[in-house]
Design brief:
Layout: H1 6-23, H2 29-42, E1 47-49, E2 53-57, E3 60-66, E4 70-72, E5 76-81, H3 88-101, E6 105-110, E7 118-123
Parallel strand pairs: 5-6
Antiparallel strand pairs: 1-4, 2-3, 4-5, 6-7
Helix pairs in contact: 1-2
């Protein structure tokens, strides 16, 4: 079975593991976001942090914008968390982001888990 964007996901998760290896758990999400932004640049992984995205409803573009933590390779939404574990609401959040953006793949990455980086691939 072939995974979509397998190489791209591998590179993003590798960068995230490096951030987690160096910082461990316990920081605020904003710290991990800044560190991951640095690591993605060091690895030449194309990414945009906090780029607002429009949300459409029928034929109207809403004024409320969605601001993902990262968009990598112009096709993968990356949402960061710094909590004890990933929750169902996190899955729902990224599914809504995928629907709004019309992208197919999202990554939930949780730096708050003790002893290991927790992550999930979410496909829409």
């Amino acid at each position: 079975m072939m995974l979509i964007f397998e190489k791209e996901v591998f590179s993003i998760i590798g960068a995230s593991i490096e951030v987690h290896r160096i910082l461990g758990h316990g920081f605020l999400e904003a710290v991990y976001q800044e560190a991951l932004d640095v690591e993605l640049r060091l690895r030449d992984i194309p990414s945009a942090a906090q780029r607002p995205m429009a949300i459409g409803y029928k034929s109207v573009t809403l004024t409320k914008m969605y601001v993902p933590d990262f968009i990598c390779f112009e096709k993968i939404i990356v949402e960061l968390k710094a909590q004890e574990s990933l929750q169902k609401r996190d899955d729902c959040q990224i599914l809504n982001y995928l629907k709004a953006s019309k992208m197919r793949l999202g990554l939930l990455i949780n730096f708050g888990s003790i002893n290991k980086l927790e992550w999930r691939r979410i496909i829409y």
